[in-house]
Design goal:
alpha/beta, single chain, globular, two-stranded parallel ribbon, 10 helices, binds NADP nicotinamide-adenine-dinucleotide phosphate, Rossmann fold, 15% strand
Amino acid sequence: MRLLVIGGTRFVGRHVVDAALAAGHEVTLFHRGGADDPFPQAEHRHGDRDGDLAVLAEGEWDATIDVCAYVPRQVRALGDALGLSGGRGGRYVLVSSVSVYADADGPGATEDAPLAVLEDEDTEEVTGETYGGLKALCEYAAVEVFGTSTLVVRPTYVVGPYDPTGRYTYWVQRFARGGEVVAVGPREQPMQVVDGRDLGAFVVRLVEDGASGAVHVAGPRSPYTVEDLLEETRAAVAPAGTSITWLDGAAAAAAGVTPADLPLWHGPDLDWLGAVDPAAAFARGFAPRPVGDTAADVLAESGVTPVPDGTGFSPEREAELIALAESL
Ligand SMILES: NC(=O)c1ccc[n+]([C@@H]2O[C@H](COP(=O)([O-])OP(=O)(O)OC[C@H]3O[C@@H](n4cnc5c(N)ncnc54)[C@H](OP(=O)(O)O)[C@@H]3O)[C@@H](O)[C@H]2O)c1
């Protein structure tokens, strides 16, 4: 198939392109570009989607996979650039997010749950507050412009090699150092992740299958908690003798810990956005690898999977919080 990927060089898109090339598809990447563009075997068209889509004036594709739309204007402008109803782009695939929902319904939330509504639908400011509502508006714009053949992919936390966020990589690196590792409760917080490589392969499979509609991409299949995730990660990468000390969430909050301080911590209360119902994806052939395999690969590929400075606890802060946990 001829596939146009909008984005495709960083993390999620990079894995989509990798999977598409491995499956023998012809791939065109549209992005701003730079000296270090990956995928020399693919065609690159350079432009800024915020106003400079002229390089898409020529060409025809079977599907367009849009990995970097954050506001609905970007979806509409892309549709215009690809001809009537975006027709030269073929089937439109929007990489959206499980953050689109109005309420955190928890592990039972299916793809038809109501979507978030923004107070100001004209905002283009992407923040933690507006991200999900803006992605929901992108989804509506996608169907409006490209029609009902549109495929909307809603991933949960994406992890694995090339992840620039450090969110999961922090935990892999921390466990690999060994010793006593502090984690903050509630340990039964529902949690799902998807390895970027499994997401990329599944997106390509859905495109090959001609899928449309919305689908979660989250695993594992059975209910999973943050404790399960950390234990599986520890088992995969930690030296013998590494232990986890759980600090009560309310005590951590009282000691000044905020969700910004600790990756994957949602605060002291259970947050049901951590999990959605992934049944539809599994029914369509989603086959995620075990999280432990992802952990081992993240460690092996630490050169391309950096943890941004300031992510997680410093050794001193961790020692303080362990002392606090032990005093309770
Ligand atoms: N990470 C998660 O946990 C998670 C969870 C759920 C959903 N998602 C969704 O997954 C996607 C994340 O994608 P990613 O960043 O990893 O994807 P990516 O496609 O690998 O990287 C972003 C791409 O967009 C290009 N780009 C950025 N701004 C552009 C512009 N103005 N014009 C043209 N190209 C532009 C960048 O290339 P240049 O710099 O060369 O332009 C790069 O190729 C997002 O849609 C996000 O909402 C992520």
